[in-house]
Specification:
The protein is an alpha/beta fold. The chain has one domain: Rossmann fold. It is about 30% helix and about 25% strand. The chain has three helices and six strands; from the N terminus they run βαβαββββα. Strands 2-1-3-4-5-6 form a six-stranded mixed beta sheet, with helices on both faces. Strand 4 and strand 5 form a beta hairpin. Helix 1 packs across helix 3. The radius of gyration is 13 Å and the shape is globular.
């Protein structure tokens, strides 16, 4: 089972809870938590997520195998770092979020060496 931490600012926590619901519904074996950006570091320290989804770059969270910067502004650039590789996308949908969750599951399940982001 992988752990996913979703963090957004107070004004956009509704997005975090929507993403949480989608992941819980489509990936029932994934442990998902939501935190505000203010709580991100402390929650990441306690929860040790494999994937961090956030409205801001989260590449400074130690121990995360992957992160997905998914800003609430659909015009803003999104970025994924997974297994040490980065990619950029514009206005990704829920399909891409779920794909990143699935790719993270694959890395963890297959026992890949932690590459970090």
């Amino acid at each position: 089972m992988i752990r996913v931490l979703i963090a957004y600012g107070e004004r956009h926590l509704v997005y975090a809870h929507a993403f949480e619901a989608v992941i819980r519904t489509t990936k029932p074996g994934v442990d998902v938590r939501v935190a505000s950006l203010r709580e991100l570091r402390a929650e990441a320290s306690r929860f040790a997520p494999h994937l961090v989804v956030s409205s801001q770059a989260t590449d400074t969270i130690p121990g995360a195998w992957a992160w997905f910067m998914l800003p609430p502004d659909p015009e803003a650039r999104s970025e994924v770092c997974l297994g040490g590789r980065r990619r950029v996308s514009n206005n990704p949908g829920l399909e891409e979020l779920l794909a990143v969750v699935g790719e993270t599951e694959d890395l963890v399940r297959d026992g890949h060496t932690f590459l970090g982001c």
